[in-house]
Structure formats: structure tokens, C-alpha cells
Amino acid sequence: MNYNYGSMAILGIGKVNLNTAGNSMFGKILDCWSGSNKETNIVVRHIWNSKKMMVVHTSAHPDNVVKDYTTTRQLEFHHDQSCRRIEGVWQVIGVVPHTIEGLTKIKEITGVNTISFYTFK
Asked: Which of 4-8, 71-75, 95-99 has the lowest mean pLDDT?
């Protein structure tokens, strides 16, 4: 295994269009996951390459996630199935509900229309 102790297991679902919620694996991610204020998307940025960003989805309620994932927290991840480390250290730059409004907020935070999504495992 090549992941660091304390890194979190995540699994990629591919890119998501933040304007349409479209995803090649699931169609619309709001249809796949509940698309409600009860789930959360955590936006992270690579600390050494600010152009590298991704979103990690969790079924946890936003109120709970905001407490644990402050915008200064740094995280490490590994792939759920291969246990390979996902390069580098990532910093939380936003926590938003898993809604169409939340996707719009991700677009505002990142300045991109499409971004890679992962889910905790």
C-alpha cells in the first residue's frame, strides 16, 4: 500500500458539469444522490498547484461537515480500490450543500464550469 496513514479513501466518479449537473457515469448527479440540503460537497485545492481542484461528496449533513472541514484544514486522499495515494496535500476551500445552488457556488469558488468529483468510501 502506498497511502499515508490518516489519508481518506475516495472513489472518483468523473467530471461534473456545474451548469447542468451532468456526469457521464450517472447522468445528473442530483438524480443519483439525493440532491438535497442533507448532503454535502467539499471543494478542495491542491496546496502546491492552485489550478488543481476537486470536489468530494459526502452524505453527511452540511452543518456537521462545516464543523470538521474548515477552510484551513488540509487533507490527504487515496483511491478506495487501488490504495494509491492521490497526489499531494489538499486544502478545503469550500463546503456547500449538494444542490443546484451548491453547484453554482462551486463554480463561483473555483472559477470553472467542469470539475472532477469523488465520493468518500
From this structure: 4-8
